[in-house]
Each structure stands twice: as structure tokens, then as C-alpha cells.
TrEMBL record, chain A:
The gene is pigk. This is GPI-anchor transamidase. The active site is at residues 149, 191. InterPro entries: GPI_transamidase, Peptidase_C13. Keywords: GPI-anchor biosynthesis, Signal. The lineage of its organism: Eukaryota, Metazoa, Chordata, Craniata, Vertebrata. Transmembrane segments: none annotated. One of its GO terms (biological process) is GPI anchor biosynthetic process.
UniProtKB/TrEMBL annotation, chain B:
One of its GO terms (biological process) is attachment of GPI anchor to protein. It comes from the Eukaryota. GO terms for cellular component: GPI-anchor transamidase complex. This is Phosphatidylinositol glycan anchor biosynthesis class T. Residues 1-28 are annotated as: Disordered. InterPro entries: PIG-T. Signal peptide: none annotated. It comes from Cyclopterus lumpus (Lumpsucker).
Length: 312, 580
């Protein structure tokens, strides 16, 4: 029905025609897998990295039940932490990224390559609780964030084992074959991070890394009270960028690629979009970092033909 | 409409009973009774620290064990109710502790707990595969509490035969249905507090739970949060039983302000919050401040003042408390908020606790060692028996023939010993002994052990930190100064009604020792890489040089001529004349 006096014609409010608008990006739910792979107090910044992404993702709408958070060591309640139960991202200590409402799913010795790959592929023992599973389907957009110490073609887990880029690419291919994702955004903040996405070959993957092969990712700034570096440069500027994003923001992936140019990061961030079927400019940041639910208001009343019976 | 036929009656609830509770009002059918109480006890300690103990208790008259599933939860959290019914749990006790309780400085806690995580469960006798159920239960609890409880397996689980009797009703003595495990390495942080708070009926939004802010709670000397589930009697004859869920949180702050004679603290200083209301779902919401050490008010000063006083028999002593009832509006005064302020002077020595224990590792080197456990009986003339439970991991091989128990220099033979030897990689050592402690003495238990070499995949990522041995548990009925109250169904504060009291002249006490940190012989994990580098270098340099020497042939070569000669040779080549 068209409103009188208005030059615009409203489309008839038939539910089927507007259903397409709901799923223009193709996904119906969002998941996030955030992993910090480093142990020991001097790797405080890796835990701060992961927690800042966790904080942004929760703020933009993904609930705890859809986030798998893996922290290899405990920094907040570490006895060396002068301010217990806090993890800061900046030495002005304004933002406590640990927060008051955090749920860590895998912690301490549980963060291993095997558990990470099992979470991704879904091959977990039957008694694993729901909070530790990635229950995604073929309409899920997944954000995967890894941080830690890495090298050319590998990422170190807890100083005792490594995951290689080939294993990671194969895990994503398993996920594709089992229809466990619709689109996947992979972000890695380690030294020589771009080597980790070189071997991907599954469709609908987009990857970002904090440094190219042969370059080191650097940390941002130390804090003299806590005594260690608080955050890495790439994730620091990523957090700054994400703090400006709100759930209905229209910023797209091209803006994300511009985060942390060489002047700020010292290393050259890289990205890979050749496997991604959509144009990165049409992919919104909130498609991966947020959990936007579109709502359409209908003016019509709908008559249910049958009365609802209560079951006995 | 057929609503009047839909009866909400928990005793015969169907699985498909989807009617919402608010739509049905049936006066003839009694609703299952559930009740929630919360309390906070604050006790200034002689060392100058402050001990705050929160208890939240939910009582629910229902039966999880029948065939029909319980489907309507109100105050009792659904996640725990489903755990009880799915795994046929009769009693569940789980605690997460950061820090060690210093008995000699702080006295006895209301609810003792060992450092790390501790879980002990009594299953119903209908369970056929207790080990399988135990494994699944630990996995589910690790998801609920965000803790790595899935590391509990057969190598750190024991079945105590005499300690850890059920704290609820029921006189099952078959220890096949009891499982006990500790994880001394488990960290407690906000991620464990968050799901714990979500189990409370009011969450952390109203009532005493608004004080639970992690930044203050973890900045303390001792923090322990626990969940206890057990069936209890509702009346003296025990005609009706109900399920009791207690969530407890004990914390010890040290707020020493140097100088000035008097110590001062307030709720705001401890928790950075004040109280504005009680939890609306609570039938009772009280704060108790222990003023026993100063009844005349000379050394203590509490504000806002209150006339409500209460006496309770707790830990073998009669203590006096000032009571603040948060369900009364008048407690909050005109400012609508309650911030308790107390000033006190730390007085002379406190009464020494009657039972106290220590444990340490003696010896040198990485091959052998000796575990010493000391138990102190500080009662001047009474002796009493204690039950000592020791669970030692398999990689410390105990030599039980070297076990000695001595008191006052003489041998003290235990009247009951239960020992289950360990099996490599399958189960740990279990040692339980009933020892009579003579009055005013120290009893020392020593046993020698040998350290095992683990397989290289069994080491943790940080093996040089050491390996933990869980705390010893010492349980005992200690003689009390005053007559204890044996009627457990009488109305009494939560902190005095946790441990059931069977006789008047003694009360139950449990003491945990320190966990031990033991270094095992650790291989150098960089050696395989070093060996490969060294071998390849030696082979390359040694064999390569030899091969070259043997197979290389030498040729004599003329030195290259000077520049003038080279130009002359080029001209000669062009003319066709042989070079110089």
C-alpha cells in the first residue's frame, strides 16, 4: 500500500518477498573462536590481545554461548599482577579488557593444538560441554583470531608444540566439507603472520595478518607498574578501530584492511581475499564481529487459522 | 478453554507440561516449597585481617530421583538440578580456592577448603558405572564453572574409606559410591566467579551479591568459593526431605593502615559497594558482625549501631554477633544505603586453635625425598583421634615400609590404616589413618618416596615449575568448650549449621595442609634439536672433508698474464699468430 502524499512506493508487505533482505549476506548466526597460545607472565600482551577482541565481539552482540575463548595462561589473577582480576590494554589503565563478565572456555593446559583442531572440526569427545563446542552450521559466519609467537609457516602453542599453516588450511577444508561455516574471517597477530594464510584453499575465507613473511610484529608499549608490554601494535590499533564500530555500523572490510599502516605498526599488515566469493567492500565489519539481527516491523495482522491446543 | 484441567503439580509433572506458572492458580494443589536465605558474617581477626563469609542457601522440597523429570525451576538453578538428576548425585561438594588458610594466624574458617579445586561426590546407589558417571560429571562441571575440571581422571581420583562421610541425610556407608579429587594447580579468577554468581536467584543485581566485585575479591589474602548440594531433613522426625544448595564465598582481606592505634574498615572499603536492598526473593537476608572479643564496646565501635544481638554456637565456642536485618527498611536508614563501619583495636593473643597441621618435603636431590606431616593438638589435657587422608600421585613412589608416626618422641601406632597402593598411570596412592593425638603435642608422620621419570609426552609445557601433590585432609571431632546444639532443624544462622552435630561435647573440624610442590627429574627438551644440529655438523665437516681429500684431483694452472701481454695476445690472435 502506498502512503498518500509520499512519492515513494512501499512494497506490499508480503513476508516472502522481504525475506531476501534478511539474509542478503547469507549468514544467520555468528561464532567466534579466540585463541591466545602463549604461556608465562612476559606474554601478558597476547592475553590482552585476545581479551580486547573478545570484548569488542561481545559488545557488538555475539553472546558468550557463541564464543569459544581459549587462554593459555592466567594473567589477571597471576600473583605477579599488581592489580588482580584486571588486564589492561593501555598504560593509562582506563580499559580493563578482562571485565566483570568473562567466561573462558579453554584455559591453561587445555589450550593445545589438538583441542584447537578438535574445536574447529567438531570432533570432540561426547561428554564435552556445550560451552566448549563450536556448534556452527552452514549459515554461520565465524571469526577466528589467533595470537602468540609464530614463525614462517607455524604458530607456537605454549612453548611446547606448533601448528603449521598446512594443518590449519586442512582444518578449514574439513570445516568446508562438513559445511561448518558460511564465511570465515581469520585474523592472526604474530611474527610473520602472513605465512599462516598462504596455504588456504577452501572457498569463502578472508584472512588478515599483522606482518608479512620475514617481518616481526612488534608490541606497543610497556607499562612500568606491571612490568611487561601490555599489547601488540596491530591489535591495539584494531581495538581502537573497533571501539568506533557500533552494531548498526556500515563500515566494511576495506576499512579493516587499512587498520595499522606501516607508519603505526612498523610491520606491514597483509590480507588475502582471493578465496572470498563476495566483494570485500560489500562485507560489513558486523558480519563477522557482530551478531546483528535484522528486524522488520509489519503493519498487517495475521490470523492464525487453527486455535492453539495445549498438550497433555 | 481447558486451562482448569492443566494442573501444575510438581509431584506428577509430565514432560510436556508447558503451561506457564503464572496462568494457573490451583489452591488445592500445594506448590513445592522453595526458600532462599542469604547471610554475610564479618569477623575481625586477631592478626588485623578481616574475614568475610557469604552464604546463600536455597532449600527445595522436590525429588530429582523419580522417573518424571522436574521441569519447573524457580529459585534452584536449572543447570545444577539437571546435573543432579542426570548423574544421580546424592551429594556434591565443589570448591575453588586461591590462597592458603593460615590457621595459626586466623583461627578456624567456617568452611574449610584446600588450595586449588576440590570435588567430592556421593552418588546414589542406583548408579551402575560410577567411574563413567564421574568422568562425565567432571566434564559437565568444567563447562558450568569455566574450570579445567576435565583434568580429573583416574590418576587423581580416590575413594576414601573413612573420611568424607555424607554431610546430608542417609546412612549409606558403601564407599564405592564416593569419589574425591583435587586439582591443586587450578586457578580461580573472574571467569569462575561469573558463572557462580549466575546461579544465585537474584544474580549479582540485588541483595548481598552486589558486593561481589572481582577486582576487590581477588585482591585478598584468601578467596574461596564453593557449591554444596545435599539432601536435608525439614523437621525433627525427618518426615520430609528437601534438597539444599549452599553457595559459599569466604574471603580474607588485609587492610592494614599503619600507625593509629585502631584499625578501621567499612563495607565500602572492602567491596567498593554499599548495600541498598535485600534480594526480593530471599526470606531472610542478614549481616552478622562478630563482637565476641569485645562485648562492652570498649575496643569495638560499630556504626550504624544496632540493638539486635544474636548468640550462636559455632566452632566449639559461643560467639556474640551484632545483626543487621536487610529485609527491614529501617536498616538502611534515611540515606537508603548501608555502609557498615567498624573500628577496633587488635587485642592480645587469640586462643590457639585446637587442631593445626603442616606438611613439607624433606630431602635433597631429584631421586628421593621424604614427606613430613605434622599435626598439632593444642588442647591442654584432652586427646582426640584424627583421621588423616593422603592422596599422593603415582609418580612419587611411596615406600610404605618407611612410614613412621611419632608423638612426643615415641611411636604412636594408628588404630586404623587403609592403604591402597598406586598403579603407574592408573591411580594414585591413598593412605588413610586414624591417629590418636596426645594432649598438647605434635604428631609427626613421615614417609619416604622416590621420584619417577615420566615419559616425555607426559610433562606439562612448564615442567620446571614442579608438580603438585594435593593437600592432606585431617578430619576430626574436636572437644568443644561449650555444649553444641544437636538439633539441626532448629532455626539458626547458616554459618553454624553447615556441619551436622551429633553430640554436644564435640564438633566436627576439617583441616587442610599445604599442597606440596615437588620437582621431578626433567629432561632437557631442547636436546633433540641440539643433537641433530651437532650430528649433522660433525658429519658434514668430518665426512665432507675426508671425501674431498680422497677424491679431489689437483691440476697445475699457469698464472694469468699481465695486462700488456693480454692485449698483445689479442692482437696476435687477430693476426693469426700464436700467442706469447
Amino acid at each position: 500500500m502506498s502512503l498518500t502524499g509520499s512519492t515513494r512506493r512501499f512494497s506490499p508487505l508480503v513476508p516472502q518477498e522481504n525475506a531476501g533482505q534478511f539474509f542478503s549476506s547469507g549468514h544467520t548466526n555468528n561464532w567466534a573462536v579466540l585463541v591466545c597460545t602463549s604461556r608465562f607472565w612476559f606474554n601478558y600482551r597476547h592475553v590482552a590481545n585476545t581479551l580486547s577482541v573478545y570484548r569488542s565481539v561481545k559488545r557488538l552482540g555475539i553472546p558468550d554461548s557463541h564464543i569459544v575463548l581459549m587462554l593459555a595462561d592466567d594473567m589477571a589473577c597471576n600473583h605477579r599482577n599488581p592489580k588482580p582480576a584486571t588486564v589492561f590494554s593501555h598504560k593509562n589503565m582506563e580499559l580493563n579488557v578482562y571485565g566483570d563478565d568473562v567466561e573462558v572456555d579453554y584455559r591453561g593446559y587445555e589450550v593445545t593444538v589438538e583441542n584447537f583442531l578438535r574445536v574447529l572440526t567438531g570432533r570432540l569427545p561426547p561428554s564435552t560441554p556445550r560451552s566448549k563446542r563450536l556448534l556452527s552450521d552452514d549459515r554461520s559466519n565465524i571469526l577466528i583470531y589467533l595470537t602468540g609467537h609464530g614463525g614462517n609457516g607455524f604458530l607456537k602453542f605454549q612453548d611446547s608444540e606448533e601448528i603449521s599453516n598446512v594443518e590449519l588450511a586442512d582444518a578449514f577444508e574439513q570445516m568446508w566439507q562438513k559445511r561448518r561455516y558460511n564465511e570465515l574471517l581469520f585474523i592472526i597477530d604474530t611474527c610473520q603472520g602472513a605465512s599462516m594464510y598462504e596455504r588456504f584453499y577452501s572457498p569463502n575465507l578472508m584472512a588478515l595478518a599483522s606482518s608479512q613473511v620475514g617481518e616481526d610484529s612488534l608490541s606497543h608499549q610497556p607499562d612500568l607498574a606491571i612490568g611487561v608490554h601490555l599489547m601488540d601494535r596491530y591489535t591495539f590499533y584494531l581495538l581502537e578501530f573497533l571501539e568506533d564500530i557500533h552494531p548498526s555500523s556500515k563500515a566494511n572490510m576495506n576499512d579493516l584492511f587499512k587498520v595499522c599502516p606501516k607508519s603505526q605498526c612498523v610491520s606491514t599488515p597483509g590480507h588475502r581475499t582471493d578465496l572470498f566469493l563476495r566483494d570485500p567492500g560489500s562485507a560489513l565489519i558486523t558480519d563477522f564481529f557482530g551478531s546483528v539481527r535484522k528486524v522488520e516491523i509489519t503493519m498487517e495482522t495475521i490470523n492464525l487459522t487453527e486455535p492453539i491446543h495445549s498438550f497433555r | 478453554m481447558r486451562w482448569e484441567e492443566t494442573v501444575v503439580e510438581e509431584a506428577t509433572a509430565d514432560k510436556e507440561d508447558t503451561s506457564a506458572p503464572e496462568t494457573v492458580v490451583q489452591s488445592s494443589v500445594p506448590q513445592p516449597k522453595d526458600d532462599f536465605q542469604e547471610e554475610l558474617v564479618i569477623r575481625p581477626l586477631h592478626s588485623g585481617d578481616i574475614y568475610a563469609s557469604f552464604q546463600f542457601r536455597t532449600l527445595w522440597e522436590t525429588d530429582f530421583m523419580r522417573g518424571n523429570k522436574v521441569s519447573h525451576y524457580r529459585l534452584f538453578p536449572k543447570s545444577l538440578g539437571q546435573v543432579i538428576s542426570k548423574f544421580s548425585v546424592r551429594e556434591l561438594h565443589i570448591s575453588f580456592t586461591q590462597g592458603y588458610w593460615r590457621t595459626m594466624q586466623w583461627g578456624q574458617p567456617f568452611l574449610p577448603s584446600p588450595p586449588g579445586a576440590e570435588l567430592w561426590v556421593w552418588f546414589q546407589d542406583s548408579v551402575t558405572d560410577v567411574d563413567g558417571t564421574w568422568k562425565e560429571l567432571t566434564n559437565v562441571l568444567s563447562g558450568i564453572f569455566c574450570a579445567s575440571l576435565n583434568f580429573i581422571d583416574s590418576t587423581n581420583t580416590v575413594q576414601p574409606s573413612a573420611s568424607f562421610k555424607p554431610l546430608g541425610i542417609g546412612n549409606v556407608t558403601d564407599h564405592r559410591f564416593l569419589r574425591y579429587a583435587t586439582l591443586p594447580r587450578e586457578i580461580v579468577c573472574t571467569e569462575n566467579l561469573t558463572p557462580w554468581k549466575k546461579l544465585l536467584p537474584c544474580g549479582s543485581k540485588a541483595g548481598l551479591a552486589v558486593l561481589l566485585k572481582s577486582e576487590k575479591l581477588f585482591h585478598s589474602s584468601f578467596h574461596s568459593q564453593a557449591v554444596h548440594i545435599r539432601p536435608v531433613c525439614q523437621d525433627w522426625q525427618c518426615k520430609t526431605t528437601s534438597w539444599e544448595l549452599r553457595q559459599t564465598l569466604n574471603v580474607v582481606f588485609d587492610l592494614h593502615t599503619p600507625g593509629q592505634g585502631k584499625l578501621e574498615w567499612s563495607l565500602f572499603k572492602m567491596f567498593s559497594r554499599t548495600l541498598t536492598e535485600a534480594c526480593p526473593l530471599a526470606s531472610s537476608s542478614k549481616i552478622y558482625i562478630d563482637i565476641t572479643d569485645d562485648p562492652q564496646g570498649e575496643q569495638f565501635e560499630v556504626s550504624p549501631a544496632t540493638h539486635l544481638l544474636s548468640q550462636a554456637m559455632v566452632l566449639g565456642d559461643r560467639r556474640t554477633f551484632s545483626v543487621y536485618d536487610l529485609t527491614q527498611q529501617i536498616t538502611f536508614g534515611t540515606v537508603r544505603s548501608l555502609n557498615l563501619l567498624i573500628r577496633w583495636k587488635s587485642s592480645e593473643d587469640m586462643l590457639r586453635p585446637l587442631l593445626h597441621a603442616e606438611r613439607y618435603v624433606a630431602g635433597y636431590g631429584l631421586q628421593t625425598g621424604e614427606i613430613h606431616t605434622l599435626m598439632y593438638n593444642n588442647h591442654p589435657y584432652r586427646s582426640f583421634p584424627v583421621l588423616l587422608l593422603d592422596s599422593v600421585p603415582w609418580y612419587l613412589r611411596l615406600y610404605i615400609h618407611t612410614l613412621t608416626v611419632t608423638s612426643k618422641g615415641k611411636d604412636n601406632k594408628p588404630s586404623y590404616i587403609h592403604y591402597q597402593p598406586s598403579k603407574d598411570r592408573v591411580r594414585p596412592h591413598l593412605l588413610e589413618m586414624l591417629v590418636q593425638l596426645p594432649p598438647n603435642s605434635v604428631t609427626e608422620v613421615t614417609v619416604q618416596f622416590e621420584r619417577a621419570l615420566l615419559k616425555w609426552t607426559e610433562y606439562t609445557p612448564d615442567p620446571n615449575h614442579g608438580f603438585y601433590v594435593g593437600s592432606s585432609v585431617i578430619s576430626s571431632l574436636v572437644p568443644s568448650i561449650v555444649a553444641m546444639d544437636t538439633n539441626s532443624t532448629r532455626e539458626q544462622p547458616l554459618f553454624s549449621s553447615f556441619f551436622p552435630c551429633k553430640e554436644e561435647s564435640s564438633y566436627f573440624m576439617r583441616v587442610y595442609t599445604e599442597p606440596l610442590l615437588v620437582n621431578l627429574p626433567t629432561p632437557d627438551f631442547s636436546m633433540p634439536y641440539n643433537v641433530i644440529c651437532l650430528t649433522c655438523t660433525v658429519v658434514a665437516v668430518g665426512y665432507g672433508s675426508l671425501y674431498n681429500l680422497l677424491t679431489r684431483s689437483f691440476q697445475i694452472e699457469e698464472p694469468s698474464p699481465g695486462l700488456a701481454k693480454r692485449i698483445a695476445n689479442i692482437i696476435r690472435k687477430m693476426r693469426g699468430v700464436p700467442p706469447l
